[in-house]
Design brief:
The protein has 116 residues and is α+β, with helices and mostly antiparallel strands. It has a single domain, classed as 2-Layer Sandwich (Alpha-Beta Plaits). The protein is built from two helices and six strands; from the N terminus they run βαββββαβ. Strands 2-5-1-6 form a four-stranded antiparallel sheet, covered by helices on one side. It has a two-stranded antiparallel sheet with strand order 3-4. A hairpin with a 2-residue loop joins β3 and β4.
Length: 116
């Protein structure tokens, strides 16, 4: 079992969600986050250039069984990557894959892969 966490642009959430549903991944958790990486946004405020410290993004978390890892990652990449070229753009986001030690369904007490 793995926990796949994707940090994507807010406006790409619907595309990513639809791609995941098409790949038969229907259980996701979404939250609004702020952060920064290489991407920088310059704004003009009262004639002065300002570089905000944090940029709004969306975090999508998906717990998957091992056979769904590559399918999930491919769906996210294809939906979240900017289509301005083969390699995308700075700011398209990141995907993190971490081991998921245990999953427990609270309602039934199921544990492991069947609880996902």
């Amino acid at each position: 079992m793995k926990l796949i966490t994707a940090i994507i642009r807010s406006y790409q959430l619907d595309q990513v969600r639809e791609a995941l549903i098409a790949a038969d991944i229907t259980r996701i958790t979404v939250g609004r986050v702020s952060g920064h990486g290489v991407q920088q946004r310059v704004e003009i405020y009262r004639g002065k250039k300002i570089i905000p410290g944090l940029i709004s993004k969306v975090k999508v978390e998906i717990a998957v069984n091992d056979e769904f890892i590559d399918v999930t990652i491919d769906a996210i990449i294809n939906a979240a990557r900017s289509h301005n070229g083969h390699e995308g753009e700075i700011g398209d986001g990141k995907i993190f894959v971490t081991p998921l030690e245990e999953c427990i369904r609270i309602r039934t007490g199921e544990r492991g892969s069947s609880a996902i």
